[in-house]
Amino acid sequence: MLRSRFHSLPGAFNTYLVPSDKSKNRRFSLSKRFAEVSPNKRTEAAKFAQLWNEVICSFREEDLISDGEMDLLVVPYSSDPSLKLMQWPLFLLASKIPIALDMAAQFRPRDSDLWKRICADEYMKCAVLECYESFKLVLNLLVVGENEKRIIGIIIKEIEGNIGKNTFLANFRMSALPVLCKKFVELVSTLKERDASKFDNVVLLLQDMLEVITRDMMVNEIRELAEFGHGNKDSVPRRQLFAGSGTKPAIVFPPPVSAQWEEQIKRLYLLLTVKESAMDVPTNLEARRRIAFFTNSLFMDMPRAPRVRKMLSFSVMTPYYSEETVYSKSDLDLENEDGVSIIFYLQKIFPDEWNNFMERNNCKRESEVWGNDENVLQLRHWASLRGQTLCRTVRGMMYYRRALKLQAFLDMASESEILEGYKAVADPAEEEKKSQRSLSSQLEAVADMKFTYVATCQIYGNQKQSGDRRATDILNLMVNYPGLRVAYIDEVEEREGDKVQKVFYSVLVKALDNHDQEIYRIKLPGPAKLGEGKPENQNHAIIFTRGEALQTIDMNQDNYLEEALKMRNLLEEFNENHGVRQPTILGVREHIFTGSVSSLAWFMSNQETSFVTIGQRVLANPLKVRFHYGHPDVFDRIFHITRGGISKASCGINLSEDIFAGFNSTLRRGNVTHHEYIQVGKGRDVGLNQISLFEAKVACGNGEQILSRDIYRLGHRFDFFRMLSCYFTTVGFYISSMMVVIIVYVFLYGRLYLALSGLEFAIMKQARMRGNRALQAAMGSQSIVQLGLLMALPMFMEIGLERGFRSALGDFIIMQLQLCSVFFTFSLGTKSHYFGRTILHGGAKYRATGRGFVVRHVRFAENYRMYSRSHFVKGLELMLLLVVYQLYGDVATDSTAYILLTSSMWFLVITWLFAPFLFNPSGFEWQKIVDDWDDWAKWISSRGGIGVPANKAWESWWEEEQEHLLSTGLLGRFWEIILSLRFFIFQYGIIYHLNISAGNKSISVYGLSWLVIVAVVMVLKVWYPWVGRNLVRISSLCSDFSNCSCSSDLLEHWQFFSLFFILQLVTYSQASLHLHPQDGPFCRYLKQVNRSSRRLGSGDP
Questions:
Q1: Which pLDDT score is estimated for 854?
Q2: Is residue 363 a contact partner of residue 375, using CB atoms and an 8 Å limit?
């Protein structure tokens, strides 16, 4: 599509990205056509070239494209007026000249037929015309001899005369045209090298080209050429042409150097020599995606851009705490337990970008990079710009300033300066830098007036005092980007009378002479961090922002130069008509750039993409319930700082601080819109544990939203339909997710009650006796709809809308093969658990996910700590329900009905129990399993205590997991007890089906079962060590059996996983009985296993 519509791009650029004095009304149309830029409008063509080439240069700086691809993608900055044509990028013209040569050499009919075939491809026509005009231009600049110029003029006149009369094929032999082209390519190559010692070669090439034209191509002799001895094959030349004499040279070689000449020669050489198709240029998928989105967005409905001086000024603010800024050399080279380092990982994920990085730094081998300090610094930045670091965010946001400078240049520069190019202004001389009247100084001033970037590095002062390298990295960022400002909280001890107390200041600094210089210092009434850390960080720094608009950007976001060019258009939305109320928040779509890191990251990327596009699009219009969900949105700064700010920071209740800004704006008669013609990059969590922590945080935040007065007020002030829309697009989604899980429990416990009480048997028996098939079918029916498939449906629709339904279907199938249904079903358990627990007990808290690369194997103990209560215990309970129903249910006797009844539930159970191990790197490597066992044994056998973290001892983890029960209210404890009573259904139902009851249904059997339970507890307390010793003997026998010659890997894996299953069950029972595992058999069992493994490792029998 880009190739077919590229001829319209200059018109689209000049319509939307270049201000016009003519006011045009904004209107919607299904198809947009822009006037093509003619060769006569050199200024418009030059403006398009400046904008397009700056975007392509940014691609090269980011190592998305190579030097060769950059040469094919750029447009000449200022086309030569003598060419009288529009020069397109070479990737559109690649291989057109070789194809046209073959076509002409084999063509025999009339001239008009040949020209018609060439004109059938518009870009082939442009390539032929440009090649011919460039051929004449090179000869005119190179040849200065009078006789030589006359000969060239006669030949050109003869060629153009025959073309005008449509007799060119009749008077010229086209079979020799490839030979002429080969000589011309050699000439252009020599001119490109500019080697003065090859003067004689240039003379010989010109003479050969003349011989080919006059003797091999021309059919009829030309009288004027005969006078110079070049009429036919038998004529003898009077002297050597192009050789010249001692005083009068015939050619100028090397020709005078100019940027325009070098650009033209390089372009002409590529136009002639690139023979392979450029359909895959650029090869990098990210570059192709960005170009496609940028060019397509220019055909969307957006406001016209004003001049930079007349645009709304805006600020960008990024909260930062202690995340990674720039990866250090040791971070990149540090190998994990599998021998995988970050730099090795990135080389495998981005191989083409690594090759482009090596090419940009003129390095052939990786050792050359590590051996040079400057190259190491470049390597650190290269790796950091592919992670979720502050360096990446700052680079992306400072594209706004770069874009404003370029756009201000197009507004303020004269026509001659525009034709000369933006490069001359972007890299001024030292004298121009000092002059405040120079154009470059004016561009800097205009950009600084319209754009401010503040990074709120909350603990930057403490980092400086402690010598943290992050402080040095932040200072280097300020030095590299002069427009960057850093706000932080400074804690100072001051003496007032006899007392020394801490005083807090909000400080704003900038870089000056490689040091930070203080700009403002504002005294605070007390500590800034009273509530949630992130909103407090934003609140203390908002006073340092300027302008009418404010864009909040998170620390793991990115921006692109081509998107920054459209910021003026986006800000004009504040002045557009969007209904009754003016917009107060402009929503912006996101692109998730972490999708290529892993399969889980790809699932999250597709899920988030569908939400920030098709989801928020519908929320904004027609539902009118879009709020603020993240950090790319642009706020009306004056509106919000006079109505409570952009962040609510109350501890707990404002855990999801972003959405409360949208609530506040809507409640105060604001209007939230969404715009998809501009996007910002966004990083997401890439590992299962990171994703689970993030979803737990969001679920807890939604649980707190239910209790907030904001939701209460919205529900009372919305109309009925808008209220329902608000419900289902905020907390209703999590309520529905929790209800799905609750319904599974209710269904299974209900069927279990029917089976254990005998009602199901009686109903089915009566139905069989009466032949009532409908009742049997109703008893055994269930809707089999996999939740994972439903979660993937919005992704399928969005991919289908943007890339076509064939691509969507392919991606959907690949996602299913990569177990996306398992992932989304597992996520359902995370959402429902944390949302339900927050509703019952409160206690929502921020969970740091970490934003690094997941290149390590996660230990079993860590997975157990994270998923024990939310997934493993619930999965085991559901599995027990299904097994008991299989044993005692009447419908379960029919295998088909049972499978139809419980297939989705078994899928849920298997997912909740095994998903963390399926998505764990190296999760089924045997050595990792053994190491996980040792680590889990160490953790489970360690006692807790004061100051012992949860990852060091089981007891500390257990106390941490039960913390919410200590602070919950009376109602929370009541419902916790009620829900826990469901376990007595097992006991009450199963004891009457055991053979020991002998069919007795009296209450005494139930009382006897309680005596048995008490006796079992007493036995476990008294005889637990004896059981442990016997388990050790049994395990030793199993170990000896597994080490014999007939054992196999399958047996070892079976033994281990069986043990893990038993271990989980026993651990759960221990926790229920409040028994510490160090007092039981498993500690001794693990010690025995460790001793056995050490003996085997040392070679003992």
A1: 66
A2: yes
| Residue 719: Cβ-neighbour burial (10 angstroms; 0-12, 13-18, 19+) | exposed
SS3 of residue 502 by DSSP: strand
Q: CA quadruple 547, 552, 557, 560: dihedral positive or negative?
A: negative
The answer to whether the beta carbons of residues 289 and 505 sit under 8 Å apart is no
| DSSP sequence for 723-779 | HHHHHHHTHHHHHHHHHHHHHHHHHHHHHHHHHHHSHHHHHHHHHHHHT-HHHHHHH
Q: Which residue has the tokens 């400086």?
A: 464
Residue 390 phi/psi, 5-degree rounding, is -65, -30
Q: Show the CA angle centred on residue 579, arms to residues 574 and 585, nearest 5°.
A: 40
Question: Token digits for 116?
Answer: 């018609």
Please state, as a whole number, how many other Cβ atoms lie within 10 Å of the Cβ of residue 726.
22
Phi, psi of 703 (to 5 degrees): -60, -40
Q: Are strands 634-636 and 585-592 parallel, antiparallel or unpaired?
A: antiparallel
Query: In 3-state terms, what secondary structure has residue 403?
Result: helix
Residues contacting residue 403 through CB under 8 Å, at least 6 positions apart:
561, 564, 565, 567
Q: Where are the domains of the chain?
A: 2-296, 308-326+389-684, 733-924+962-987
Q: What is the pLDDT of residue 955?
A: 85
The tokens describing 589, both together, are 């779509």
Contact between 529 and 362 under an 8 Å Cβ cutoff? The reply is no
Q: What angle do CA 933, 936, 937 make, to 5 degrees?
A: 85
Cβ pair 530, 504 in contact under 8 A: no
516-556: per-residue pLDDT in tens?
Answer: 999 999 999 888 887 777 888 888 999 999 999 999 999 88
Q: Is there a cis peptide before residue 921, judged by omega within 30 degrees of 0?
A: no
Fold entry, domain 308-326+389-684: Spore Coat Polysaccharide Biosynthesis Protein SpsA; Chain A (3.90.550)
Whole-angstrom distance, CA of residue 459 vs CA of residue 461: 5
DSSP per position, 326-353:
S--HHHHH-B-TTS-BHHHHHHHHSHHH
| Neighbour count for residue 201 (Cβ, 10 Å) | 14
pLDDT digits (tens, 9 = 90+) for 636-682: 999 999 988 888 877 777 788 889 999 999 999 999 999 999 999 99
- Select from 873, 875, 831 the least CA-distant residue to 737: 831
d(CA 900, CA 907): 12
Q: Does 306 sit behind a cis peptide bond, omega within 30 degrees of 0 on the bond before it?
A: no
Q: What whole-number percentage of the chain has pLDDT above 90? A: 29
Give me the sheet containing 557-558, strands edge to edge: 515-523, 499-512, 484-496, 451-457, 314-320, 549-552, 634-636, 585-592, 672-682, 557-558
Q: Strand pairing partners for 557?
A: 682
Measured from the Cβ of residue 807, the count of other Cβ atoms closer than 10 Å reads 12
Identity of residue 540: H
pLDDT tier, 1049 (very low <50, low <70, confident <90, very high otherwise): very low
Q: Rounded to whole angstroms, how far apart are CA atoms 43 and 469? A: 48
The CA-atom distances, in angstroms, between 162 and each of 112, 155, 217, 610, 693 are 12, 11, 13, 60, 77
As given in the structure block, the two tokens for residue 423 are 């490069």
- Please count the CA atoms within 13 angstroms of the CA of 86 that sit on its side-chain side: 24
DSSP state of 583: -
